[in-house]
Fold this sequence. Notes:
Oligomer: single chain
Strand content: 35-45%
Helix content: 10-25%
Shape: globular
Order of helices and strands: EEEEH
Largest sheet: 4 strands, antiparallel
Number of helices: 1
Number of strands: 4
Amino acid sequence: MADPTWIRARRCSTSACVEVRQFGDFTVVRNSSDPERVMAFTHAEWETFLQGVRDGDFDELGETT
Length: 65
């Protein structure tokens, strides 16, 4: 999947960042430090994930205890 249209989060300040792009009928995700390994999601799956992020469904993952 060698294509320069990957999008990286603006907050990324290291070489190990999450990147996403559209690839046909899928949204694909990779870690910039391991670009050959990608995960593919349907548009419905990706939109559901994004809505969960917006709704705070994953906020507890960032908490340290």
